[in-house]
């Protein structure tokens, strides 16, 4: 079927109009997208770090401009580690002989002294040891008398040497046996004198080997105590110290006797003082780190073995790049200073009245620069700018917090 010529021409015109409209729409969208992208790129390129204030504003809010300085400050080496106690200041309490726990006299967290009775163990086999001691003690009376008789006969020339030697051997053997049984009873906390009077017992005490604080008690009344199995542990924190890991690059700076300031990470960064008293001579667990031992000057009651600490070891003085403490501000976990951009430095010399008005109205631009900080002493703090600054760069030495708040406000407005 063939369409008339006028209809074909109409359809062709409509098709041309549709194509033109589509091209115009595409161009418009492209320009809008390009404009949006351009705006976004400008927003990214121009973060809210640049600030502008006049001299009059600087004086009104008390902002002071100065230079980065170089001063001799105490250099430190930062090392982390844990609190520990010497081996002689912690103990595990064991039963020398197996038996049933008759009574436990202490509780966890209780302070005890050396020699204090911690628990009572009951064992019927103790009666046999005491009986053997009594038998040896009673039999020794005859052996001792025979030895003295043979000794007197020998001295008088009436006895034989063989009889004397035999009595002497029996005497030494029985005496050694009595001494061994006495020692065994003493280790168990049983008095040989009381046993000698016939006062036998089936119970013996568990004695504290050191003074300190009771830790975990793993035994219960009525349970069986196996020899070699810990019943409880005791820790004496009076000699607590810090074991810090110092890595190979800083090891040459460390010396015995250097002062250390500790920060307790889980104690609101509480500061305590100490001194290095020992340096290991081998690396720790293939980490290229060496354990450095530091004694704490005044151990407090809140120090517990196993706590994590950060130690700042004073290794002497060093010429460092510093600024006043007030020049550094913190934001979002980072630290910054404000630098005066070149060409907008504040003038220091006098001028005429007209020039003063112009100078008061002149704008000064500031740039926020991120820095890494180090040791702080006498109102100054060490900084390392994370971008290169000019040799005579001027910075805000006082009132930087005002610029920081203004910068935060500008960022929120944008």
From TrEMBL:
This is Membrane fusion protein, cobalt-zinc-cadmium efflux system. PROSITE patterns: PROKAR_LIPOPROTEIN. GO terms for molecular function: transmembrane transporter activity. Belongs to the membrane fusion protein (MFP) (TC 8.A.1) family. InterPro entries: Beta-barrel_RND_2, BSH_CzcB-like, MFP_Cation_Efflux, RND_pump_MFP. Residues 246-310 form the CusB-like beta-barrel domain. It holds the Pfam family BSH_CzcB. Residues 91-236 form the CzcB-like barrel-sandwich hybrid domain. One of its GO terms (cellular component) is membrane.
